[in-house]
Every structure is written in structure tokens, then in C-alpha cells.
Amino acid sequence: MCGIIGYAGEKNAVEIVYRGLINLEYRGYDSAGAAFGINGRTVVFKRQGRVEKLKPLLEGLASGIGIGHTRWATHGSPSDINAHPHTSGKITLVHNGIIENYSELKAELEKGGAVFKSQTDSEVIAALMSVYYCGDILGALYKTVKRLKGSYAIMAVAEGENVIAAARHKSPVVIGYGNGGYYCASDEPVLSGECGEVSFLKDGDFALIKPDGVRIFDGELRETERKKQKNLAQAGSLELGGFAHYMLKELRQSPAAVKNTVTAFAEAEDKIRGALSGVNRIIFIGCGTAYHAGLIGKIYVEDIARMPAEAETAGEFRYKNPIVNKNTAVVAVSQSGETADTLEGARLAKSLGARVIAVTNAPYSQLTRIADTVVPVCAGAEICVAATKSYTGQIAALYMLALLLAGKNAEGGGLSGLPEICKNVADGADVYALSRLCAFSKGVYFLGRGLDYAVALEASLKLKEVSYIPSEGYPAGELKHGTLALIDNATVSVFIATDKSLTDKYKNSVEQVISRGGIAAIITDIDELETAFKGRAHIIKLPCCRGHLSPLVTATAVQLLAYETAVSLGLNPDKPRNLAKSVTVE
Ligand code: M6R
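^ thats the input. predicted complex w/ 5-amino-5-deoxy-1-O-phosphono-D-mannitol below
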């Protein structure tokens, strides 16, 4: 949802902030901007569109201090004027989050004579800070945030002061300790290669980032310390590494994500077992892809551990009055560990006495601080907005969790050799012809039963997200209860079919689509289906999918299908329109 970065030190802040914005762009790409201290003045550069539009403006500039922003628009359309930084008087700032009471504050400031250029909530913060500013940037920021309702990560500079003041509430700020300078940023992967050590501001904290050091303050401006930790984000993880897109690079990294997640689970197993002791019911929560992983988790827990389980979107869970108690584990699944709805769902569950388990790819995220214990997903930095390897990593983690709940040997759990199978699918599944059919269809329906249905929902999300083709996921049995009315020769119905015991049911459903003149496709490892529909349906034949582990194989195939479809339409799957990687606001 917007990425922000700041730097103060002896290196050129212009290069560092620009490079940082390029690497933060997955958090939003509606506009980009930066401000630098040059000869005692604050100089601002901003443009609607991608970060690279700033490049010609910054050519040849040098500065020791700067802040930058890449925007996912919430208040005010994408435009040059609405781009950050925003300036008022001597104050210039960047903001990630949403200020819920900005209209009241704006009206109050306008009464006092303030004139606003943009439609953003963020400009109101700058105007308010400028009112409070009398030579002490930290004091002005403190007074300002006391008036704000909502979420914010703010980095501000004041003309003539060689310091960045930062504050956070519900939006992340990481402090980076580099060679010859200090950093602040929205996440730690952007600091990989720059900072070996990082520390994380807590909600309510403030920081002053200067060329010669960092000072951190708590919510009452008492100087404090936040533990320095090794920056686990690997240098180079933000590079394309010869791939045309991050989506392709990352879906090919699924085998490693599965393997590393299984290893990390074994290391954390005792802690996880302890956190689950006495639990008799599991509720999975998450958003988007993470929710779809939760649906798979529910099936695993019911099937393997024979324990009651539910899965719900975090956005629904957080606004109801859930029935939970100390024997309920709420498993919050989130790649980023920063999704606002998931965090609120986890907080609610905790306040009601439930155990909270975080399944996340971000070991230092807010979610890990709320949770009683963490089930690590080790997918590495995921840059493409569309989740790929984090989803397969989550599935592997949830499978291990179910085995643990069942008291079964979690070591391996039949997973050995599976990464190799996923690799073969990612390298070899021939989805090209089917992707062309999808690209030129008027709608694509993904159908399945059980685990295949859960993957069908994710397949549909992936396809619509990167190709903009209308798509839905359905339980195959529901086809005849309504969806069949939509089937014609311009629609594609993709069956995901890996449960051999349901082969006859699948046959019926595919026949129904064909008899209505629809285009049918089957992603399957079942020989009988291949034989039955050869020449009548488009078949993507998979290697043996191994029962409960089938989603790891089918997911790779449908991710590849979505990727190929987007590319054949000339779209950039890494940065789908209107979306951002981490949704840290409501
Ligand atoms: O970081 P999270 O896993 O909490 O993100 C949740 C969703 O926003 C995310 O899974 C989204 O649906 C995917 N980017 C879709 O590919």
C-alpha cells in the first residue's frame, strides 16, 4: 500500500532513495516522488506513474538527506498533484496509511487560512505539522500525530534541519543501520544489500534519523531502544535474475519455498506443539490468496487431524462476534504479516482469549508480534503483486501443522520428492494453448471438489488479477445449479481434477459443459479422464499429485496458466492495475 524510504548519511541520498523506490514499487505504482535537502532547501520531485519517471529529474543531483514515496492511491486519484511528498511551510513529508479524520482536520485548517493543493489525506498531516512547527521537528510530529485517527507511517523533513523525523501507527517503519548512513523504510527487503542490521519501530514510536545516528522514542517521547536484528532479507532477492517477470521467477521458486518451509517447521515444531496443546478447534483467517490457503488448511485439519476447523476471510471475521475460547486456535495466514484485516482479526481473537498462530513469510512483521507463536513460511521476498511461492509455502506449512495436530510424524510427511515434482510442472507444463483460449474468452470458470475446489478459487483469483479476464471458481457440483447458464462457446471451463475417487463425477461435469457448447479443459493426473476426453477437452496432464499434497502441484500449474495468459495479452503480471502487494489499510 505505498512504500516509503528515507536516508541520511555520507552517501548520495538521491541514488539511495531512487533505488529504494524502484525496489518498493510493488507496494504501489500510481505515482512516485522524493524530497532532498540541497543547499539548505528542501527540493521536491514528483510524477504520476512509475518510479522511473523520476529518473530524468534526478540526473546529476547530490544530497546527504532524502525521503521518497511510491503511491497506491486511496484518497485522491493518481496524479502529479496527489503524488507525495506533500509540503506545507517548512515541512515536507511522505505518508503510508489512511487518516480517517482528515476531513475534520482539513476543515479546521482551512478556517485558519490553510490552502490545499491535493485531494489527499496526507497533505493534511503536512499542514498540521507546519502549524505546530517552531524549529523542533520531533515536537511538531508528536503534536500532529496526537490529532490523527487511522494508520500512518510518516517520514518528515523540515527545511534547514538535517534530520528525518519518523512516526508509526499500524503501518510499518523499519530502521536500517548501514555503512556510512542510516535508513528508514516500509520493509526490510528494500534495505537488503544496504543494511546488515535493522530494528523495527513499535506502534506509537518516533525516530530521528540523522547522518551520524538514529534515536528512537516511545509514544511519550521518552528515548528508548528497539532491538537491532540481522536483516534476514537476502541481497539479490529483489533482482529479476534473467527472468522476464518476477511472477515467473517466483513461481519457479516454489519448490525451494516448500523445502525451506518444511525445514523451518521442523526447527519450530516444539514451540508450535506447545502453543497448540489443549486446542480442540481451529479457525483459519486471511485475505485473498492467504484465505485460499486457509481453506486448504481447514481440509487438512479436518481430514488429517479429525479436528473441527473453519476458514473465513479476515475482513469478515474481524467484524463479527466470533465464538472462540482458550481452546480455539485462530491461525492467521499472511504473506506480508501486515494486512490490516488480518492483523485486526488476530487482535480480536487474542482479546477474546483464543490462541493466535501466525503463518507468515515475514518473520519480523506486526502479525508475529501479535501471535502467540509463529509457523514460518520460508518463501523469500515475493515482489510480484500476485502471490505464487508464498501460497505454496503456506500450503506446505499448513500441511505440517495438520500432521502435528494429528500427532503424526511431521518430518517429511510424504513431502520428500514433491519439490522436484513442482519444479517439473513449473518448467514443463504446457499451458500455452490453454492460455490463448483463456486470453480470448469472455470468461473462465475454474471448477473442482474438495482440495481441487480450494485451488480453483485461487486459480480464478490469479487469472483475473493478472489478466483482467472475468473469472470465477466454483465447486464442480454447483455447476448445474446456476453457472451452466453462462456456458457458451466463448467461455472456458477449467476442471481441476486430482481426486481419483471422484472420476465419474468429474466426467459428468465435463460432459455437461461440452454438451452446452462450452470449451472444456482439465488439469489432472488421472489417466482415465485423459482417455475419456482426448480430442474433446483441452488436457493439461500432471505428474502424480499424491492426495493431500495435490494443491502444491495444481497451484503451480494454474499460476503458470495465469502468467502465460497475462503475457499473451501483453500485460505486465507483476504490477496489475489498481492493486498493491500489501494491503495495510481497510
Ligand atoms: O500479505 P497477505 O498474504 O496478508 O496478503 C493478502 C492478500 O492481499 C494477497 O494474498 C492477495 O490476494 C494476493 N496478492 C493475490 O495474488
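The pocket of 5-amino-5-deoxy-1-O-phosphono-D-mannitol is lined by residues 287-290, 334-336, 339, 342, 385-387, 461, 465, 582-583 (CB under 6 Å).
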